[in-house]
Amino acid sequence: MKNHNPSGKSLQFAETRQRVLAGFLFAVIAALIWLAYSGRYDAEVNRLAGWLRGHYDALVR
Fold it and tell me: Transmembrane region positions (predicted)?
């Protein structure tokens, strides 16, 4: 059985840019899952929050 394609054109697949973005998002989600599984998630989030707070304070001054 053949897939129905109403446009009559050949099927279009993802461009390289879309594949790279999907791979990047997969890596970010995998890293978050690993951090949560290893128990280091809270420490990493606190470190990121401190970094953001420091840059915000420097920007406001």
Answer: 20-37
State which amino acid sits at residue 23: G
Instruction: Pull the structure tokens for residue 46.
Output: 């606190």
Residue 20 and residue 26 in contact, taking contact as beta carbons nearer than 8 Å: no
**pTM more than 0.90:** no
d(CA 7, CA 31): 40
Q: Contact 32/41 with Cβ under 8 angstroms?
A: yes
Amino acid identity at 24: F
Q: Are residues 11 and 5 in contact, defined by beta-carbon separation less than 8 angstroms?
A: yes
* 8-57 pLDDT per residue, tens: 667 667 788 989 999 999 999 998 888 778 877 788 888 888 999 999 99
